[in-house]
Amino acid sequence: MVDNSVTPVLTEAPPGPLLEFWRHFSENRGAVLGLFVIICMVVIALGAPWLAPYAPQEQYRDALLVPPAWAEGGSLRFWLGTDDVGRDMLSRLIYGARVSLLVGCIVVTLSLAAGVILGLSAGFFRGLAENLIMRLMDVMLALPSLLLAIAIVAILGPSLSNAMVAIAIVVLPHYVRLTRAAVITERAKDYVIASQVAGAGLLRQMFINVLPNCMAPLIVQATLGFSSAILDAAALGFLGLGAQPPTPEWGTMLADARQFIQRAWWVVTFPGLAILITVLAFNLMGDGLRDALDPKLKR
Amino acid sequence: MMAFLLRRLGLLIPTFLGVTLIAFALIHLIPGDPIMLMAGERGISAERHAQLLAAYGFDQPLWQQYLVYIGQVLRGNLGTSIISRQPVLHEFLTLFPATIELSLCAMLFAVAIGIPAGILAAVKRSTFFDHAAMGVSLTGYSMPIFWWALLLILLFSVNLGWTPVSGRISVMLWVEPVTGFMLLDTLLAGDSEAFVSALRHLILPAVVLGTIPLAVIARMTRSAMLEVIREDYIRVARAKGLSPLRVIYVHALRNALMPVVTVIGLQVGTLLAGAILTETIFAWPGVGKWLIDSIQRRDYPAVQGGILLVASIVMLVNLMVDVLYGLINPRIRHAH
Is B15 in contact with A139 (Cβ distance < 8 A)? Predict the structure, then answer.
């Protein structure tokens, strides 16, 4: 018998892709901070019924425009004060996190799904289909996004769901362009040709072979898409074209609070702060993801 | 150069047609009958309804309506506002100088602070100043500007009483409109009190509107400078013994400014979209506020015309940026 057992060479196992990604990602302190804030926001949104001291719509008629607990005239009953009809600010902000994260999720899912399908089609079919899709995207990019969203909401009528549809449509061109560009680069590679020779069908080529290799820029764009979706939804809400009162949406809350700016700073300050912190967190994480996932910038 | 211009103009035509299609669709996609919508809650008799349908051409096939619409647009007829009974183009042109004045001042503010901040951050890379400037700039970039406007009003108008809350000029003053630009008109009239009033009204909205472009310009200037500073010719300039200031401002900045200029041009869309929010908050009588008011009043011809005009302006400015870029940079001009 020949002993053909090989003595293992003692080297450190190569890190898995996730671990490697985490190493690059965690080098960026801002990105980790962003991730932490986002996790907190998700916990707050999911646990809103248990975390919020009151129901968001509950009106306490004996406590109109009560200042926050630490300000003069404030009470510990309402930590962040109450609004003009006596609703607890803190509870409304906590429930508002639900609305904003939901808006982000739905807008990103809608635009990512539609954008990937259109981008894959443009990249695979070329010719007329590609021309039509890309020219349409050019037209959409020619309009300022908020203006296009306003136009779409003007057609559909003002409501939170219509605002989400409008924002999803407005951000579509970014996903389509990214996907198409990535698909065109990938399609020329040997592994795609090899699987084509092996007889892979069109759908398998599109979704199983090519798409996973185009994901990196899409993940970055989707993260940044969260922040712009939350910002745009709040802007539409502020203009009265998004969520309608009494929905505790941060932008809508600001619109209601405008008239009390002279006497109640807290109703104006906190909802905007919530928007800023959330948007900033997603932007920080998006920047970190870009650095960690973009092979050109790696190392 | 001529070929480049023609090619770029050729690209503009399908985009413009697409925008007209969106504007056209705006009226026709609204659920329900446009005449009933315009009539609103007052209601309308069946006779008058039929008469109006024919008058607006809504009884013709869609493609025919679209052709008629394009024909009208090309002749400068953008319809008549339902509320004011004025031609939409006329209303837009009356209000547009206010928006231009606001946007120009916002851009001036953004450039005057953004470019020096970006340069300094690049030169002092990885220092406290760099981190602070980029942190502030990311915050500015993430800022909901409608909230930023409210905060500034709270501080400067409500608490300190330094600036007025809304409008373009004190209601007590009247200045003959010559150019439509309040600052110029007050100067032309030689009325220093009115000029100061106009300036005080302009500062807050301009700062608010300029915040996001400021953040974008600062970040872009920094990264463009960082790229240029690494180049060999900069090392040569340093080795020649030129002063550090000269190397930065004469040698590096000139080349770093190219992408910055492009970004400034591309901010025009952001400015016009931001003007919608800023003008609404500060009751600034420009096209942004007019557009939102028109939507709330269901003045669809005004909304349709306004969207078409704003989109056309953004497209024209983008075209100008491209052409300018081609003029400066022959590599772009000759690329196919």
Answer: yes
